[in-house]
Structure formats: structure tokens, C-alpha cells
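Same chain as my last thread, 475 residues:
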Amino acid sequence: MTSPAPSRPADAGLIEKLVSVVGVAHVVTDAQALAPYLAEPRGLFHGSTPALVCPGNTEETAAIVRLCVAAGVAIVPQGGNTGLVGGSAPDGAVLLNLERMNRIRALDPIGNTLIVEAGCVLATAQRAADAAQRLFPLSLGAEGSCQIGGNLSTNAGGLAVLRYGTMRDLTLGIEAVLPDGSVWNGLKALRKDNTGYDLKQLLIGGEGTLGVITAAVLKLFPAPAVTQTALIGLARPQDAIALLARARIASADTLVAFELISRRALDFALRHIAGTLDPLGAPHAWYVLAERHASAPGLESAFEDMLAGALGEGAIADAALAQSGAQRASFWKLREAIVSAQRFEGASIKNDVSVPVAAVPEFLARAEAAVAALCPGIRVVAFGHVGDGNIHFNLTQPEGVERQAYLDRWWELAGAVDEVVQALGGSFSAEHGIGRLKRRELARFKSPVELALMRRVKSAFDPLGLMNPGVFFDS
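reply #2:
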């Protein structure tokens, strides 16, 4: 397979043509106005672009792609720019932002579907479902700014995967502009469609390398009539795994979230984020934040009895069941505060990994031992979606160590974590994707057969290599 020709720089002629498609107000070339679109949230990537182009509909998106392809100019699709792996940081490419394509096209309460455009903010889709007494269950820390197109392109996971799955599971159909500028209308609201390759699943999780997702048919669910939320103190991660099995049975498998939190992660939140409170009477080494949803009353006492029984047997150390919406919100505030609190403690090397659920305790022990041996005094901040095996295993710099010197060891320390993950049959990127940040891990841990197949798919969709170049592969 031959490599595609390198992208050409955009010239004034191309930008003039782009203006003719979307209007002068929707082509941005001013450096100051571009800055927010080029800054990656963690500050690891700083993009550059000759122009930001914001189409208002699918036809304009297709026209933009055709113009860029004809000029040999690369395109980087962008949603809310909340990704954490540099997937929407352009390196001289035209930046195609979908924020204007934010309409809700249809909501079907009988079929339980919602058709939205790619620029629709996740929270807006959630509110639309809620207004129809339905639930769109994807929930992320960035839900107030991330967009459905980005959620699809990265196969977003989040807090409710245990019951509802990732975006792959929550999507029935998509519409996309392909790398040649043609439009594929796959907006079918079908639960069964066994007619060959499931093409939407290639674009979902494709991080904009195979085309530009412009709209999607999303699955909805009955709005929960009952929500039970518990904060549980534990001695060991092993106790969390045992409790997970027990809770799934007691709740008739209606658990939505089962979040593991280390005491260090909680301490960071309590120390730095206003309005957080220590949730239980005494500190514990580990915590679980568990939540169940039900569309009708029932099993509330069974869930409470399960917690009481586990407490009486010593399987857990303490538990509090939220008695109000405010108390539930305070529990979730602690979980959300962990993310922002880490920056106050210094540089942090992030690891978004998954292992089989039963292997989580072994992973935590082995990975902490591996990084501590390399970097004495390192502070592990472990938390995340233990119900689906996804742990955010973040490494905060030792006290007294110079920040940049520590960050210079990113690949060494993250690599040690990845080795443990690989040994346990896990994934080095559970939900954040590959982008530009994790290309070396992809090359290291994917088999030659997998890499060759991925390159063939990329070449089949995008033979010129102009769609988000530099994501997944160096070239």
C-alpha cells in the first residue's frame, strides 16, 4: 500500500471558495479568534490552522470537503474540543467545526429514538429526552460542552456504561460526509438491519479519520422513576468487586454506575474543591459510589437490605444511602471534583485503561508497585468506572520534584502501567481514544494484523489521507 501524498497548505483561493459556501461570518482566520479552538484541554497540544470553517448543514459540510479534497488540503473535524488525546488539534489543516449544526431533527417517544445533528451539545440532547419523559443515558463530566459528533467519533463511555453501554450501543444510525465529499445517509431508526457490513460502526470511534459525522439516530429509554444512590466505604478493591456482583443481583441488574474512588483521590477533592464534604463518619481506604435506576417502583428495599447485609457481615465498612436529591448531588460532586482537584497537586500523568472487571484489584496492586519502583514518592490517584473495568490510573508528581522533569518521564511511567494492562488482557485506552497522544502505544500494543487492517480501512475510505491526518498513525 503506497502512502498518500502529503497535504498542501491552504491558499487564499481556497479560503475564498470556503467563504462562498458558508459566508464570511463562518470562516475564521484571525489568530485571536482561532485560539480557543486550537487549545487542547490539557495543554499537551497546540494546533495551527489557516482557517476555521463552520458549516450550517450537511450540504455545506460536503461542499467544504469537496473543495479541500480538490485542493489537496487536509481537514480536521472538530466538535466541542473537549477530547483528551489531541484528536482535534490541527497541524496546518483546515479546521471543520460542527458547532452550528446543533439542531434536534426529531424525537420519537414510541420508537424511543432521538435524531440530532453532530454539533448538538450532549446536555441539550439529554434535556430534549427528559422533556419527553425519556432518558438519553450518556453522561460525562464535559456534557455541558461536548458535542454528539465528538461523542460518536470517540465512542464516548462515561458513567452509565455498566447498564447502557458506550455510544456504539446507544446509536442506531448515522449520517456522514465521506472523505470524497459524498454524503452517506444511514439515519435508520432500526433495531434490526442485517444487510451486510455495519458501516456506522467504522465511523463511530474512527476519530474523524474516515469521514465527518453530521447527524445520528440515538436510542432513548424510559425516564427513571426511581433513583437510589449510595456511597460505600471499603477496605480493599477486592471488596468492591464482590459488592458489585452482590449489588447487581439485589437490584435485578438495574445498576447504572459503580464508581471506585481511592482515599487519596477523595482527599485531593476535599482539600481543593469548595463545597465537598467527607461523606462517611470515618475515612476508608476505598469507596464505591453506586447508583441504580428503575422505570417503576420496586426493589428499593432489596437494595437497602443488600447494603445492610453487607455491612453486617463486614463485607463493607460503612455506607450512606442518599435520602434526598441534594445528598445524591453531594455524592456525585465528590466524584466529579476528583478530576479538577488533581491540578492543584502538581503535574499528573494520565492513564485511561481497562482490564477485565475481576482483574481490577490485581491491576491496581501491580501498577502501583511498578510506578513506585521507578519513581519513589509518586502519588497514585486511582478512580473510575470499576463496574465496566475502566480505571483512571493517574500519577501525580512526588512532592518536591520539578514539574517538567516529572512530565518528561510520561512515556516511561505510562509505559509501565500499560505493560501491566497488557499482561492482564486489557486496553491502554478505555474511553479517551488514540488521537495524536497515544499513537506510539497503538503501534506498540496492536498486533501487526490489526494495524494492517486498520490501515487498509483508512486507505479504502480516505485514499488521499486528507481526513484528520496524524490521528492513529504518524503518516
